[in-house]
Specification:
- The structure is a single chain.
- By secondary structure, the protein is mostly helical.
- Helices cover 69% and strands 0% of the residues.
- Helix 1 packs parallel to helix 3.
- The N and C termini lie far apart (100 Å).
- The model has no long low-confidence stretch (mean pLDDT 85).
Length: 109
Amino acid sequence: MTGPYPPQGPYPPSYGYPPQYPPPPDSNLVWAILATVFCCLPLGIVAIVKASQVNTLWYQGYAAEAHRAADEARKWAMWSALSVAILIGLYVLVALIVLLVAGNVLWWH
């Protein structure tokens, strides 16, 4: 068969055709961006950098490194969200302590 189409057959395309890769792992880029915008900026930036490396490593043939980068992106995004949750919790705790101390001082007078 001649024409603009690649030859059909049981064999994968050879020279001149891009290799067929399975889909890369989830890069967690959305979570990294959300963590950067809404949570801790420095930790979120690290998560974005790690997430952006996933597809590059995957299509270069480094599957294990791509999975590791995806896991690290998820880890950094999670730590970014947790850091803000911890800081808000500490803020609420300090505010409650201050209000309790101020309430006790006013109650005694």
